[in-house]
Specification:
The protein is built from eleven helices and 14 strands. By secondary structure, the protein is of the alpha/beta class. The protein has three domains: 55 residues, 434 Repressor (Amino-terminal Domain); 132 residues, 3-Layer(aba) Sandwich (Rossmann fold), CATH 3.40.50; 123 residues, Rossmann fold (3-Layer(aba) Sandwich), CATH 3.40.50.2300. The strands form three sheets. Strands 2-1-3-4-5-13 form a six-stranded parallel beta sheet, with helices on one face. Helix 1 packs across helix 2 and helix 5 crosses helix 11. The N and C termini lie far apart (65 Å).
Length: 349
Amino acid sequence: MSPKTRITQKEIARIAGVSQTTVSMVLNDRDGSNVRIPAATRERVKQAIEQSTYVADPAARRLAGLDNQIMGVFTYEPALSPESMDFYGPLLNGIERAAEEVGCDLLFFTSSPVEDGRRTLFHRKTRLRLADGCILLGQNMDGDDLKRLVDEQFPFVAVGRRDETSAPVPYVGIDYVSLTAELVRRARELGHRAGIYVHRNLDSPAARDRRGEIVASSDSGELRFTLMPVEGNELSGLADLVATSGATVIFAEDTFLAEDVAHALVSAGVDIPGNISLASLGEVRGHRIAGLALTGFQTPRQQVAAEALSLLEQLVATPAEQWGSLDTQRLLEGKLELGETLGRRNPVS
């Protein structure tokens, strides 16, 4: 059966061995008060719904008494490793707290195997239909997965702005464009005119948002950046680029990359921020460089996760034909964390 095909009441009737009228009566008899429907017949219809992709219809689930007050959480990348907890930890914490408040349980989908560092949402082992809806987490998501969920009207919310498909994907994310523009303006106010943007050449929406604003700054002449893509931790040419480009500030795409940049510069005898300033385009609270608080962003990741679950609750409780009336694409504001690694341009630079 095509992924885009929605199971009809006629097909449910065939599976259950009853008439289509009986299926309709079961779906519209929420409290089971219609005594004309035997309990055994009602149970056969419910089992047929559970066994089919019709279960993705939230209205049908509720009318058939199949909503479980369970929200799924699916991560495209492993989320609980020590390396990934800095990113995923606040999000998972925010989802957990929000779930406690609304009184629902969370189902963490882990049965889909990790292949090449990623999971597949529609892997045969992923028990997506056990949940009433699903939160999606991941720096990169599969556009085909997102489009299929939209087409099948399965309630879901992605964390982070999504543009992997033209389908109207529900999401809650952080406005990295405005944050990056604000940090550029702050660096400009401190006298910086030339910088280096060190990035991993990622193709996620958040990475493109940051990089796009850096390019826009260069194009406008506000602060001209030399872009330096890196593979892994290869930063051996950074000190030379600083010397030849005339840069007085370095922006790093994320905080861990900023720490790698600092290590490479300090090893080459470059003082931060005496010789060159440094800032991260990511969450920096609690991160220090050579004893100095790192300059970067404060991002409301717990709030993002809580709003994502709240939006998911709205989608589950609202008939799919009315989803267009909801605010399903939201970007939350962050704040600058000025720190101590972004200083005034060195007059001799």
